[in-house]
Write a structure and sequence with these properties.
By secondary structure, this protein is α+β, with helices and mostly antiparallel strands. It is built from two helices and eleven strands; from the N terminus they run αβββββββββαββ. It is rod-shaped, with a radius of gyration of 31 Å.
């Protein structure tokens, strides 16, 4: 009779130990699934919050930055694609676009053939308003690098609207101070 009681205790103990192991494995599997889901969805949520991507054609993607107000290599502004060959955002005082163009056209320059940085504002377009649009700051200021080549079509931006003029000069670089 003692043998039967001992065997019953061993079976109960073994059965209880078996269910504990199954419960532990189930818990660990659940934790693994939760970590996997977090690893998949957290970066997607962060990506959705920080950027907005617009695909124009299969070969052209333009990204507009919706969190920070700064130049990026390709951005859509008032329906036109604004591109920078090089973007400099390393200085916390300004954002800088080198080789500034819109729809492949340089911006106008009716200031002169300076080939240097200047704070002179041209009359044909509104770089100050443009910088304020880029930075989101109503007190933004500018510095522009003007150059000249030959008379050709240049793009201008005034009060959220685009147009073209003929000009010998062009705006090569634009620096928007916050």
């Amino acid at each position: 009779m003692n043998d039967i009681n001992t065997n019953t205790n061993q079976i109960s103990s073994s059965s209880s130990n078996h269910w504990f192991k199954i419960s532990l494995w189930f818990f660990l599997l659940l934790i693994l699934i939760l970590f996997t889901l977090a690893a998949i969805f957290v970066p997607v949520i962060v990506l959705i919050v920080t950027t907005k991507t617009i695909t124009i054609s299969s070969s052209t993607t333009i990204t507009t930055d919706v969190i920070t107000a700064r130049f990026i290599p390709n951005q859509l502004i008032d329906g036109n694609t604004v591109t920078c060959n090089i973007v400099n955002n390393s200085n916390p005082r300004y954002t800088e676009c080198l080789d500034l163009r819109s729809n492949s056209f340089y911006f106008s320059n009716d200031v002169g053939c300076l080939s240097q940085w200047s704070t002179t504002i041209p009359t044909q377009w509104d770089p100050l308003g443009f910088c304020r649009r880029i930075t989101g700051s109503s007190t933004a200021n500018i510095s522009i690098y003007y150059e000249c080549d030959m008379n050709q079509w240049r793009i201008i931006w005034i009060t959220n609207s685009w147009s073209y003029v003929q000009d010998i000069g062009f705006t090569r670089h634009l620096r928007c101070y916050y």
